[in-house]
Design goal:
By secondary structure, the chain is mainly α. It has 10 helices and no strands. The chain has helices at residues 4-34, 37-61, 67-76, 80-96, 103-111, 113-130, 135-168, 178-203, 216-240, 244-263. The chain is elongated, with a radius of gyration of 21 Å. The N and C termini lie far apart (78 Å).
Length: 264
């Protein structure tokens, strides 16, 4: 009989195998100068396909404590960092192309990259140690994971505030970039739910929320679906939002029109 974990892993591979080519198309369409966040989208899809593949391999091995399962759960637990990096890149682009440009909001978002990467590394180290059979390693792993998640929560709070401050200044946002802003705002509740699940796995001593061998159903409902929705939203942004070149062309046309009106 097929287990829940196996079925969920297969579903992840199917979904992200469809999303990955879209993410690649979006990345090529916008280019590295347009938004590096779309590159993070490709990396995230690859991570999720790898994690699902390792989960299937662990089911095939028939051992609940095998290294395949451990690494599958570790890769699956580091979704917050990449999701935030995608959002950082997109909201930075919106503020960079605002008129007038918001230097304060742009620079604040750029400063969030460092603590976000630090939290991501702490989460990886914490996940590795939590999977150990050594009790001392498990205790230190929990501390690493809790510290990393605490940083993620602060970073997410600042990021959310900046997104809503940008919304309050919607009149300064270039019309074509407003689609990006709305998409980023739409993704925020799903990222919040993903972080809430991580809080339960790290701070709540419950077998149901354990990083390794936790409830597959709970993980699917509180983390996997949310991640998929965010990736779909970001793919939609990449497909329908104008490229940087198109935005610059619009700005140039507007300047020429204003110059012509003054000249007449």
């Amino acid at each position: 009989m097929v287990s829940e974990r196996f079925a969920i892993a297969v579903a992840e591979i199917v979904v992200y195998s469809v999303l990955l080519p879209i993410a690649l198309v979006v990345t090529v369409r916008h280019g590295m100068s347009g938004s590096v966040g779309f590159l993070y989208l490709c990396i995230f899809c690859c991570l999720r396909i790898s994690a699902a593949g390792l989960s299937i391999a662990s089911e095939h091995d028939g051992r609940t404590n095998c290294s395949h399962l451990v690494w599958s759960e570790i890769l699956g637990s580091i979704g917050i960092g990449p999701l935030l990096l995608m959002g950082f890149s997109l909201i930075t682009r919106v503020n960079r192309n605002s008129n007038p440009r918001s230097t304060l909001r742009t620079n604040t978002i750029r400063m969030l990259y460092i603590p976000n990467v630090l939290a991501l590394n702490l989460a990886i180290v914490g996940g590795v140690r939590l999977s150990s059979r050594n009790l001392s390693q498990q205790r230190s792993g929990k501390q690493f994971a809790q510290t990393g998640l605490s940083i993620f929560m602060v970073v997410f709070a600042i990021y959310t505030v900046i997104c809503f401050l940008t919304l309050f200044k919607i009149d300064t946002v270039v019309p074509g970039e407003r689609r990006i802003l709305y998409g980023v705002l739409l993704a925020i509740p799903f990222i919040f739910l993903r972080i809430f699940y991580a809080v339960l796995t790290v701070f709540k001593d419950s077998k149901k929320f354990a990083i390794v061998n936790g409830s597959a159903t709970v993980q699917f409902c509180m983390a996997i679906i949310e991640e998929m929705v965010v990736v779909v939203i970001y793919c939609g942004i990449g497909l329908f939002a104008p490229t940087e070149n198109e935005i610059e062309k619009r700005k140039t046309d507007q300047r020429l029109q204003r110059a012509a009106m003054r000249g007449s």
